[in-house]
Inverse folding.
């Protein structure tokens, strides 16, 4: 069927609206992703939960995220990325609203639904923006993920400003769910032109040869632990701050805010850093900073000391994730882009294990400070995995 001039005009107008709308939804997704860590203290008080019970919120959200990521892959193979984004944004909105149900089982279900929405939305929007900017992919994706980071930064102040003892999280969830639902509706109405969409690449021969290589699984194991560390730090820092301060920390420059702020700002150091360091050295430098930051944060007797530790930890971990993903692609070439799903699934499972592990250890020992030592163990393990990766890489180059 021929495209009429009117249809062409609609598609052109839709294209102009689509890009900023995707960025707005990605910003809201950043808030929705890290919201779990900011509302844990509220649910701790509302349901009189132990740290072990609080830890159940993380598997609920991350299990949903794994499912959403797998479903997103199905939509992607069928070139229905916009539909995945619409369903994901609507799922996040519904899950966030369920957090006000007053029933613990329904709240957990809400976190699971929010996770499904996150798993659908984040990969779909990344790929949509990639397809819309084929001639400037790096800058377009960097800008997009800055919006996610901005959402993560404002999540803590957003919760502090919109929640109180009287209304609980009602205004918080409404102010986040309504824009997400509106974004889903608007996205469903925007036509997308397929003229710039690349043809699917033919499947590489040789089956899953990439995942038969030890290096691929070593990098995936590193991803498992590091994403687990990031999620554990981001998920528990608000609750830990309250334990150190002895009261809710609601000032703007809270340790949580500073951690996410420098986590995002630190990524701007990447281009400068790689003038002097290769990928492996940059990762080691980041791990050293993380270990120093953790030592300061976990020995903190005041909010100020905890804030300093959070800043150093945020900077140190900021470039590790993109650098590890980069070396995965650099190690295996074009095949890696088509077969990276296990890598990202490992990251989501790692997030579940570490965040749950912190709460479990805290519940057994009765001290969240002991639970946070799981983060130290994760960094030590990362040093070991980094040594394994460097060894395997050296052998590959030699042979």
């Amino acid at each position: 069927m021929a495209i009429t001039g009117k249809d062409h005009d609609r598609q052109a107008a839709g294209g102009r609206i689509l890009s900023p709308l995707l960025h707005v939804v990605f910003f809201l997704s950043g808030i929705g992703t890290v919201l779990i860590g900011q509302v844990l203290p509220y649910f701790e008080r509302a349901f009189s939960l132990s740290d072990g019970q609080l830890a159940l919120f993380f598997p609920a959200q991350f299990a949903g995220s794994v499912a959403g990521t797998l479903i997103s892959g199905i939509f992607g193979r069928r070139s229905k990325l916009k539909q995945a984004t619409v369903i994901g944004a609507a799922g996040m909105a519904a899950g966030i609203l369920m957090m006000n149900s007053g029933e613990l089982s329904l709240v957990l279900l809400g976190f699971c639904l929010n996770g499904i929405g996150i798993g659908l939305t984040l990969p779909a929007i990344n790929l949509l923006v990639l397809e819309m900017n084929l001639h400037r992919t790096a800058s377009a994706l960097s800008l997009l993920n800055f919006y996610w980071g901005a959402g993560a930064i404002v999540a803590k102040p957003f919760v502090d400003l919109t929640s109180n003892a009287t209304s609980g999280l009602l205004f918080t969830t409404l102010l986040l769910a309504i824009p997400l639902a509106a974004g889903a509706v608007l996205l469903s109405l925007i036509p997308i032109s397929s003229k710039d969409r690349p043809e699917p690449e033919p499947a590489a021969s040789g089956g899953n040869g990439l995942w038969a290589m030890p290096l691929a699984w070593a990098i995936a194991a590193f991803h498992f632990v590091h994403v687990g560390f990031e999620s554990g730090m981001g998920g528990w820092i608000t609750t830990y701050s309250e334990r150190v301060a002895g009261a809710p920390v609601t000032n703007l420059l809270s340790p949580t805010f500073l951690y996410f702020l420098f986590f995002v700002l630190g990524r701007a150091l990447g281009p400068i850093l790689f003038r002097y360091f290769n990928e492996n050295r940059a990762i080691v430098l980041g791990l050293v900073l993380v270990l120093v930051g953790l030592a300061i944060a976990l020995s903190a007797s005041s909010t100020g000391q905890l804030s300093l530790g959070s800043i150093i930890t945020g900077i140190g971990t900021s470039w590790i994730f993109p650098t590890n993903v980069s070396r995965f692609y650099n190690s295996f070439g074009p095949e890696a882009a088509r077969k990276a799903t296990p890598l990202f699934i490992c990251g989501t499972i790692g997030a579940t294990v570490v965040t749950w592990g912190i709460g479990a250890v805290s519940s057994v020992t009765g001290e969240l400070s002991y639970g946070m030592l799981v983060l130290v163990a994760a960094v030590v393990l990362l040093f070991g995995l980094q040594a394994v990766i460097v060894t395997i890489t050296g052998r590959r180059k030699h042979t």
User: Anything to note?
Assistant: DSSP finds 17 helices and no strands in the chain. Residues 198-207 have pLDDT under 50 and may be disordered.
